[in-house]
Amino acid sequence: MAIALSQLIAETDQLLDAARFNDYCPNGLQVEGRPYVSKIVSGVTASQALVDAAIEAEADVLLVHHGYFWKGENPCVTGMKQRRLKALLDNDISLVAYHLPLDVHAELGNNVQLAKRLGWSIEGGLEADNPRSVGLVGAPAQVQTPQELAAQLALALGREPLLIAGSQPVRRLAWCTGAAQGYIDKALAAGVDAFITGEVSEPTVHFARENDITFIAAGHHATERYGVQALGEYLARHFAIAHEFIDCANPV
């Protein structure tokens, strides 16, 4: 069975409320391919490796969290960008990307999906005054030491996280997938015992130590594998088309 590309995009844009986000990149259809879709390949980032894998898998659409055309980047279509775009266009594959809309979605979003895999309950947004808060606040299934929390993440994500352990057991925690280490001050203000994100910066370590809050950098790629998978699976069910998630490993 196949679905019109235009219908797929229109319904996905509406599902994720994409038009309401002021994002760092365009959301939705970024590169237009063939007009009908019978198979979606999803992945985290539209790297050359993922584009090549989508071609090999005979995808009609490549669905990603990290697409192209970021604010501030060189707009010239040369080098790496030319090779990626040429591969998509030569093979008539559409590139569809959702960044912030996929981070915050209440069912399919990266942060909700990460919580489901870890068994965390969700209390509310990390930014209490922001109805579109990217980060979330909640609690683990049971009180844990920082080391136990880090071990749980390592097992679930298949990646050893960076742990800056505080002195308190983890009863409440905050998290924000990707590169959200700058939100650690919001986590402290929320009164949680631990903050989990994907990446770390040099000042983050000092902030965590001096404020006695557990900080865990569990990997940008690793924490953002699940939203795009959930979206791809949803679209496959909704439109009765095929979907395959392809994980191109990234240590960051």
Write the layout of secondary structure elements.
Elements: E1 3-4, H1 5-16, E2 28-31, E3 36-37, E4 39-45, H2 48-56, E5 61-66, H3 79-90, E6 94-97, H4 100-104, H5 110-118, E7 121-125, E8 136-139, H6 146-157, E9 162-164, E10 173-176, H7 184-189, E11 194-197, H8 202-211, E12 214-217, H9 220-223, H10 226-239, E13 242-245
Number of strands: 13
What is the general shape? Answer: elongated
Radius of gyration: 19 Å
- Helix/sheet category: alpha/beta
Widest sheet: strand ordering: 7-8-10-11-12-9
Instruction: Examine the coordinates and then state which fold CATH places here, giving the name of the CATH topology of the largest domain.
Output: Udp-n-acetylmuramoylalanyl-d-glutamate--2,6- Diaminopimelate Ligase, Chain: A, domain 1
Class of the largest domain in CATH? Answer: Alpha Beta
Task: Name the CATH superfamily assignment of the largest domain.
Answer: NIF3 (NGG1p interacting factor 3)-like
Family: Belongs to the GTP cyclohydrolase I type 2/NIF3 family.
InterPro entries: DUF34/NIF3, DUF34/NIF3_sf
GO cellular component, one term: cytoplasm
GO molecular function: metal ion binding
Key phrases:
10 helices; Udp-n-acetylmuramoylalanyl-d-glutamate--2,6- Diaminopimelate Ligase, Chain: A, domain 1; alpha/beta; 252 residues; elongated; five-stranded mixed sheet; DUF34/NIF3_sf; six-stranded mixed sheet; 13 strands
Word description of this protein:
With about 250 residues, this protein is an alpha/beta fold. The protein folds into two domains: about 5-100, 3-Layer(aba) Sandwich (Udp-n-acetylmuramoylalanyl-d-glutamate--2,6- Diaminopimelate Ligase, Chain: A, domain 1), CATH 3.40.1390; about 105-225, Udp-n-acetylmuramoylalanyl-d-glutamate--2,6- Diaminopimelate Ligase, Chain: A, domain 1 (3-Layer(aba) Sandwich). Helix content is about 35%, strand content about 20%. It has helices at about 5-15, 50-55, 80-90, 100-105, 110-120, 145-155, 185-190, 200-210, 220-225, 225-240; strands at about 5, 30, 35, 40-45, 60-65, 95, 120-125, 135-140, 160-165, 175, 195, 215, 240-245. The strands form three sheets. The protein has a six-stranded mixed sheet, sandwiched between helices. The longest helix is centred in the last third of the chain and has 14 residues, at about 225-240. The mean pLDDT is about 95. One of its GO terms (cellular component) is cytoplasm. It comes from Atopomonas hussainii. This is GTP cyclohydrolase 1 type 2 homolog.
